[in-house]
Hints:
By secondary structure, this protein is α/β, with parallel strands linked by helices. It folds into 2 domains: 3-145 and 311-344, Medium-chain alcohol dehydrogenases, catalytic domain (Quinone Oxidoreductase, Chain A, domain 1, Alpha-Beta Complex), CATH 3.90.180; 152-288, 3-Layer(aba) Sandwich (Rossmann fold), CATH 3.40.50. Helices cover 27% and strands 28% of the residues. It has helices spanning 41-47, 96-99, 140-144, 146-158, 174-185, 197-205, 220-230, 246-255, 277-282, 297-305, 324-332; strands at 3-11, 14-21, 29-38, 63-71, 83-86, 89-90, 110-111, 123-127, 131-133, 166-170, 189-194, 210-213, 236-241, 256-264, 286-288, 315-320, 340-344. The strands form 4 sheets. Strands 3, 4, 5, 8, 9, 16 and 17 form a 7-stranded mixed β-sheet that branches. Strands 12-11-10-13-14-15 form a 6-stranded parallel β-sheet, with helices on both faces. Strand 13, helix 8 and strand 14 form a beta-alpha-beta unit. Helix 1 (41-47) crosses helix 11, helix 4 (146-158) crosses helix 5 and helix 4 (146-158) packs across helix 10 (297-305). It is globular and about 65 Å long. The model has no long low-confidence stretch (mean pLDDT 96). One zinc ion is lined by residues 91-93, 95, 97-98, 106-108.
Amino acid sequence: MAKMRAAVCPEPGRIIMDEVERPEPGPGEVLVRVCATGLCGSDLDGYHGKHPMIGYPAIMGHECSGTVAAVGPGVSGFTEGDAVVVEPFFVCGVCPACLKGQYNLCVDLLIIGHQIPGSLAEYVKAQARFLHPKPACVPFDEAAIAEPLAGSLHAVKRAGVSIGDFVVVIGCGTIGSLALQHVLNAGAEALVAEVKPSRADLAWRLGATHTFLRPVAGGPESLKSRVLELTGGVGADVVIEAVGKPETLAETVGLARRGGTIMLIGWSGNPSDAMDMTSVTLNELAVLGTLGFCWDHKTALRLLETGKVDIASLITHRVGIEDTERGLQMMASGDDQVGKIIVWSSPA
Ligand SMILES: [Zn+2]
Ligand SMILES: [Zn+2]
């Protein structure tokens, strides 16, 4: 059996570089030589033993780009050396959701870096149907971020953001800052609420119409009064929650206008979070969830290719794969200067 090097998490709180079995591409599958992986909050949750889909030992990483190393039986359209972006799903293709085209809701959905080996390794296996050609002008590190770009696109499209809307985006991490750009591209006004000054500043640089830096001891009321002030007492057409804390999930209801929409991208992991359901009903709010992406990667890559989104500003650090754990610890530190971290598995 061929071997490869990988950043393995044998148990929560530890990453080691190890020699592991190299995946073999089966029918309809492709082996990708990984170039770049973006570290995600879910990788950090996995490292801390707090991700429900990640068991141990784990090879994490799901935001990735690379080149085709080998194709399995029945795969056409890809040859060795092709530069690709991986959409990190494995689906059955025959369940009711798959047959409806809603493959992100597949009953047997498996996510690369969660239930199956991820891209914090030399090689990763993917389904050929979820490989996308990397646009030549997009560098490998930025191409790896197509994954959260597609996820945020899926959420913003589901929320029905349209021209002239007033949208509140809570949180300007990777997902929030990408959602912000989709909201602005859709012709809407956006207010971004953040606790970190560097992220509020990023929102500003990305073109946010308004930024709200939460006062250290301030409560949610102050954000609500700002939103009401800016909307003539009406409230936001759409509220996008991209933090996933119980308090920010709860505050969404008070920010939306009557008949408005709440999009919950963030999730706390709690089986239930407090939300004022009486107001949801009496104000006829639409509260929507979102899972990954579904037919969004092609658009996301086109947005990158045509320069309609800024990914470069989000990337603050780049490390080699042997420094994966250091990268995760940098994320965990809460350092204001740490944004998206790229891990190189092989040179671009
Ligand atoms: Zn992710
Ligand atoms: Zn399915």
